[in-house]
Write a structure and sequence with these properties.
Chain lengths: ~110, ~270
């Protein structure tokens, strides 16, 4: 497994919450938001299980809606608990990244 | 593999694991339609993706690993066992709580099977003792079946030892067999005509008859094909959720991050 994939593994759920903080969305569009955000292509086999976990933990709420001329889509929205998790874990992550940068800086 | 074939295979895999396929399949279908990509490149093989979905729904994943909160079911204290001059087990401790899965690992010949047999009360330790609270099911690595009996006769024989009627034992055995993707358990083939993998399924079914509190499983999946192997671990998580205490002897390390506790019997120093 390459390094980027390993990094992403630890923060994908937070990235998904972050993508949903920009408005409710469905799976494929979330993947596009993440890719547009520079995270690379996220395989569906990784994204949807992560969404299911967030759903089970109550961090997102879901809503099935009939699509226009297509199959129904499952929309995800950030729950209050999800927003709170994103704030606190996001802050932890920022501190972590700062520490990693500092220790990797060549003196 | 066409999109429709892939979706049908995913649906079958989810149904086989008692998960309603409509949600995950509908979502995958929408994604494939939107992206226009091939299902194998987006989601991988149906069986593997189904397993990821099931794990996500049921929470049998590392980040949700729980501390054992149930009452202690099995406690083995300072178990020592020698064969001739060779000390196989030297002061081994093991405790397993309700709702906990322990993997017992170690090199060949380090005493994994011996330790499990001591826990089951089938072998006596030279010193140390085992406390057990509740009923026990034991699945040996080999043996354990009778050559000239059919699966149904096995279910009734073992069921009788646990106080079940013939009808109840047969029904329970067949249900457990179906969960291991073995519908043929209802047939009249004697055990000697079953393949090695199927005989192991029979052993595993027998160990769980009568709903024991503690399950001791000695590499029970040998000879299983991949699908059944995945079903086996699903069954283990299911037992854990039902509050069973489970010990699995294994040499397959890729499952270790999914169990609660690992007991490594590899000797620390040369003996």
């Amino acid at each position: 497994m390459d390094r980027r994939t390993q990094w992403l593994r630890g923060v994908l759920d937070l990235c998904v919450l972050g993508a949903l903080a920009r408005g409710e969305s469905y799976g494929y569009e979330i993947a596009q938001r993440l890719e547009a955000g520079g995270l690379g292509a996220i395989a569906g086999g990784t994204l949807y299980p992560a969404l299911l976990r967030l759903e089970r933990l109550g961090l997102v709420s879901i809503d099935w809606r009939a699509g226009s001329g297509g199959p129904a889509r499952k929309y995800y929205r950030l729950s209050d608990e999800g927003a709170a998790t994103l704030r606190s874990a996001g802050a932890d992550w920022a501190v972590f990244v700062g520490n990693v940068n500092a220790i990797m800086e060549v003196p | 593999m066409t999109v429709d074939d892939w979706l049908a295979a995913l649906s079958a895999e989810l149904r086989r694991r008692q998960v309603d396929p409509s949600g995950p399949v509908g979502e995958a279908a929408a994604h494939l339609r939107d992206s226009g990509q091939s299902p194998l490149s987006v989601f991988g093989p149906p069986a593997a993706y189904a397993l990821a979905v099931v794990d996500s729904l049921r929470g049998a994943t590392r980040e949700l690993r729980r501390l054992p909160s149930g009452e202690p079911r099995l406690r083995a204290t300072k178990i020592t066992k020698r064969y001739g001059r060779s000390t196989v087990l030297n002061g081994v401790n093991l405790s397993v709580h309700a709702g906990e899965v322990v993997a017992m690992i170690g090199a060949n010949g380090c005493g994994k099977s011996t330790m499990l047999r001591i826990c089951a009360g089938l072998t006596s330790p030279d010193s140390g003792h085992v406390q057990m609270r509740g009923t026990v099911g034991f699945c040996p690595q080999t043996g354990g079946t009778a050559e000239f009996l059919t699966p149904d006769e096995h279910f009734m024989l073992v069921g009788a030892g646990r106080g079940a009627t013939r009808t109840a034992a047969r029904a329970e055995g067949r249900t457990a067999a179906a969960a291991l993707d073995w519908p043929g358990a209802a047939g009249d083939a004697e055990a000697r005509h079953l393949s090695g993998g199927t005989r192991q399924k029979l052993n595993l079914v027998l160990s769980q008859l009568g709903d024991p509190d503690v399950l001791l499983l000695d590499e029970p999946y040998q000879g299983f094909d991949n699908g059944t192997y995945l079903d086996f671990w699903q069954q283990v998580w299911h037992w854990r959720d039902a509050g069973k205490a489970i010990v699995v002897v294994t040499h397959l390390l890729n499952e270790l991050d999914r169990v609660d506790t690992v007991l490594d019997l590899t000797p620390r120093s040369p003996r």
